[in-house]
């Protein structure tokens, strides 16, 4: 175009990395945590930018998993990194993950949740699961998981369906936690 300076984007494929941002994590009793997330229709630059933000937010928290709805985006996207403290990072992305098989055998794990900070509870879930999902290239995969990976995948897929780990506890425990976090949210709103 005559008279217009031409802008040259030197790194068009990685431009989204520059915009990578820490996002706020929604905290109980935020109603958005109860939303059912929408499937991803196309794995595009917007989804890749969301995933970058989710990793940054998850590592900063710190956490070992995160569902997109926890940062306020109701899309079926999960990030995980179960690498041990001194091991190299192992970022994993699950787009539209679905549990397609669960074992009869159960396992109990003391779970935590970045949306329910500093609260932990024993949750019983299937010990092994098969999960199908898409990767960042929209390539389909099926994964058989056990141990912490099986627990985390089920915890994160629950988030995509508006389910929290406290929903797997007794009503007494759940109501107690809800009351505590509702009170804290009211106090924070009053002092804001
Ligand atoms: O979904 C989330 O809220 C993340 C959550 C994942 C999870 C943990 C344990 C069992 C099931 C699912 C967390 O990451 S809580 C924080 C946590 O477990 C942790 C943080 C730092 C180091 C090690 C663990
Ligand atoms: Zn959680």
Report on the architecture of this protein.
There is one protein chain. This protein is α+β, with helices and mostly antiparallel strands and 192 residues long. The protein is built from four helices and seven strands; from the N terminus they run H-H-E-E-E-E-E-E-E-H-H. It has a five-stranded antiparallel beta sheet. A two-stranded antiparallel ribbon has the order 4-5. 26% of the residues are buried. The structure holds ligand K1U and zinc ion (ZN). Zinc ion (ZN) binds at residues 113-115, 155, 159. Ligand K1U binds at residues 62-67, 109, 111-115, 151-152, 155-156, 159.
Keywords:
binds ligand K1U; alpha+beta; two-stranded antiparallel sheet; five-stranded antiparallel beta sheet; 192 residues
For this structure, the quaternary state is single chain
User: What's the mean pLDDT score?
Assistant: 92
How big is the Rg? 19 Å
Q: Strand tally, please?
A: 7
Structure classification: alpha+beta
Widest sheet, order of strands: 1-2-3-6-7
Tally of alpha and pi helices: 4
User: What share of the residues lie within helices?
Assistant: 25-40%
Low-confidence parts, pLDDT < 50 over ≥5 residues?
1-17
Bound molecules: ligand K1U, zinc ion
For the biggest sheet, the summary is: 5 strands, antiparallel
Terminal CA distance reads: 50 Å
Shape field? globular
Question: What amount of the residues lies in strands?
Answer: 15-25%
Q: Give the helices and strands as they follow along the chain.
A: HHEEEEEEEHH
């Amino acid at each position: 175009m005559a008279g217009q300076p031409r802008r040259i984007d030197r790194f068009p494929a990685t431009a989204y990395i520059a915009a990578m941002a820490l996002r706020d994590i929604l905290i109980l009793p935020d109603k958005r945590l109860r939303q059912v997330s929408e499937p991803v229709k196309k794995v595009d630059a917007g989804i890749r930018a969301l995933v970058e933000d989710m990793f940054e937010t998850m590592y900063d928290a710190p956490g070992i998993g995160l569902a997109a709805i926890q940062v306020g985006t109701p899309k079926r996207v999960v990030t995980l990194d179960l690498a041990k403290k001194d091991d190299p990072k192992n970022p994993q992305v699950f787009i539209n993950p679905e549990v397609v098989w669960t074992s009869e055998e159960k396992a109990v794990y003391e779970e935590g949740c970045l949306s329910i900070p500093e609260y932990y509870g024993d949750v019983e879930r299937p010990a092994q699961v098969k999960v199908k999902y898409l990767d960042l290239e929209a390539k389909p995969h099926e994964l058989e998981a056990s141990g912490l990976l099986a627990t985390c995948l089920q915890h994160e897929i629950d988030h995509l369906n508006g389910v929290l780990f406290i929903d797997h506890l007794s009503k007494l425990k759940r109501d107690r936690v809800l009351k505590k976090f509702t009170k804290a949210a009211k106090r924070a709103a009053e002092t804001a």
